[in-house]
User: What shape does this take?
Amino acid sequence: METASNLAEGTFRIRNPHLRFFFDNEKVLGLLMIAPAVVYILALVGFPLILAFIYSFSDITIGSADYGFVGFENIKNLLGEFEFKIALKNTILFTAISMIIVLVLAKILALILVKDFRGKFVVRALILMPYVAPISLGVIGWLWMLDSIYSPINWLFQRTEIFGPDFWPMWLGTPNLAMTSIIAVHVWRMLPLATIIMLAGLASIPEEIKDAALVDGAGYFRQLFQITIPMMLPIMMVAVLFGIVFTATDIIIILVLTRGGPYDSTQVLVSKAFYTGIDAGDLATGAATALFLFPLLAAVAIFMLRIARRAEVT
Amino acid sequence: MPQVETQSLFKHFGEVKAVDGVDLVSSDEEFLVLLGPSGCGKTTLLRMIAGLEKPTTGEVLIGGQVVTHLPPRARGIAMVFQSYALYPHMTIYKNIAFPLKAMGMPKADMKKKVDWSASMLGIEGLLQRKPRELSGGERQRVALARALVREPNVFLLDEPLSNLDAKLRTSAREELYRFQKNVAITTIYVTHDQVEAMGMGDRIAVMNAGKVRQLGTPDDVYSDPADTFVAGFLGSPPMNLVESQDRIVGFRPESFLPKKMHEGGGDLIFLPFDVTRIENLGADRLIYGKLGERFSHAAVIANLPTSFTDYTIETNTRYDFAVPRNDVKFFDGKTGLRAEPLPL
Assistant: This one.
């Protein structure tokens, strides 16, 4: 009995109660755990963003330490500029068209992949491939595939006689084709993630709901448009939101494939901001160009999240 | 109302024989219950009748017509699922109207039908709400209204009460029973709950391992079980089964009473009973104990109504118990099927 009570005493004896239970306080622990994320966001997202805002209302340039506040002068100048309007139009076109194509293709792929069939594993692996490949290397691969002289795509279409004799399209060298190529490569890159998100959305629809729709007499398309898609809406909205923000702010594909050309036909706001602000040294105009879409994208984000919440499914 | 029939229906998932040769005929306007433990194949059988599952072999007939290769929507059936499977993004009105919309019914007729169906279930006030705003009991009624709205030939219900809490389940059982008698539509009802089966079914098909072990009225399957599985599955506690020579002898705990409680006597079989434990469950007292040497001290249970207050029982004591000879059932020791009585 004696040893047992000694043991119990030892177990419950607390050397320094304040220190021992310091981390049991959820307020302290919570703050500590969220601190790295807060520091990260403030230092690497918040600070540069504020800096960009400050620059965009100034006349600052690379190589000069002077800061002069000019208000909305930069944005006013931009709006009067012909190249800026083209870049804005290209950004909207590039984002809208590639998002629509990605949505439709991802939906179809997800509907296929949700079924069981032989070789599904291989198909799924192939579809996922672009996502795991380093994006800049992947785009350099496309640069070669779309080369004006050595393009294997042209060679293939010539050999199979799909292209007529002496038809050698310059994929990256003519304005409309260049935009088409940029969109195609972007779709290639976005499709895997979009498909995975759609698959998750499809899988989240309970089996009994699909059965109920079958028993209630819904054919394939009624089920698709009145049950499946509405029930996937919240998750699709999140996918579209990410897609829009991602597409509108992307620069890699354009930088590698066309550098905005030919004749600015693939110039988008981000690439223009880079060329103006960094290459040409006009930091202020570059910042203003880069931030031009900020209010628009924020509005899109709020709108999408509201729709997603309204369609939320229990 | 047409009857539902299955002819030597099999469904194999690889090695697993989910449904293993079921021949079943429902009669008109009948409330037929498929009862069995989980995994016995009752839901698979129901899904094959619905057309949601293709049988490996065999035929399904509704109203005398082979429907085995028809899709669910061509079978004139309606189904209520365990989770109710309401469409979460639609209002209750749209949920109930969905089958009519799929039929291409004009809007005005549709509204009349939905109102009629909703009034049958007493949910007129909920039509503009979304499913997530309803309670479990209300959702169940919406599911029934959606099933009723296009006046199907057959109702298929898959454990529709199992998501309700115990108290609500009792009243829902009563309502569902009256509802079925009211609309007089042939109903096939799947459950693992014997209380639901006994309380609502006109007939019960007791299933195990993909086979129908017995089909009969609740009284039949309870008091006249076809084999040891049915005997052991129905009743709470189930039938006492003890071995004797090459037979299994079965008797219900509620027929196994102290000798002097068998008023009027009749033809009794006397059994010594060594009481080991007593459970007082409120309405009943369950007496656990062992039979004498003749049944090699087999463990059995007696169920005494607590209203027999003048009879005290204590543990670790031997009492003289008895069973009416008519209440004792005999089963073959090997097959478990009913067999000729032994002289006891």
Notes: The two ends of chain A are 57 Å apart (CA to CA).
